[in-house]
Amino acid sequence: MDNPNKVTKDTTSKTTQTTETAEVAEHIKKQYEQVGIATLLNTVEIVCVDCQATRTIAKQEAFQVKRCVSCQEAYRKEQRKVYRKNRMLNLKTRVQLLENLLLTNNISIPA
Ligand SMILES: [Zn+2]
């Protein structure tokens, strides 16, 4: 049979839940007012592949965006670094090839 103490406890937690639900509803309502229903419906939440943080983005960007704002910035920085490094390596290799070509053809660059 029902325990009277349990019933009292359940009623209390139900009241708390209702308050929380009301707060959440109020929060969502404020969000709607701020960004507009069209914007909210056209957004999607993604999980950052690097730090697992959530980021809200436009639905049409869902296939391109994989990172949160700070990880995206760090990723771009790293990509630029790799690009510069490869570019320098390619240039050095090219200079070396040209120097070898000149040497094998007995051509010297005038000082
Ligand atoms: Zn991140």
Name the features:
two-stranded antiparallel ribbon; 3 helices; single chain; binds zinc ion; 66% helix; rod-shaped; 111 residues; mainly alpha
Q: Rg, please?
A: 31 Å
User: Care to count the β-strands?
Assistant: 2
Distance between the termini: 104 Å
Which spans have pLDDT < 50 for at least 5 consecutive residues?
A: none
Bound molecules: zinc ion
Large-scale geometry? rod-shaped
Give the % helix: 55-70%
Q: What order do the helices and strands follow?
A: HHEEH
Helix count, DSSP H or I runs of 4 or more residues:
3
Q: What is the residue-averaged pLDDT? A: 84
**Physical arrangement of strands within the biggest beta sheet:** 1-2
Major beta-sheet overview: 2 strands, antiparallel
Structural class, by secondary structure, is mainly alpha
- Percentage of β-strand residues: 5-15%
Can you tell me about this structure?
- The protein is 66% helix and 9% strand.
- By secondary structure, the protein is mainly alpha-helical.
- A two-stranded antiparallel sheet has the order 1-2.
- The protein is rod-shaped, with a radius of gyration of 31 Å.
- Residues 48, 50-51, 53, 67-68, 70-71 line the site of zinc ion.
Outline the secondary-structure elements.
Elements: H1 4-35, H2 37-41, E1 43-47, E2 54-58, H3 69-104
Antiparallel strand pairs: 1-2
The chain binds zinc ion (ZN).
Summary of the model, kept short:
The protein has 111 residues and is mainly alpha-helical. The protein has helices at residues 4-35, 37-41, 69-104; strands at 43-47, 54-58.
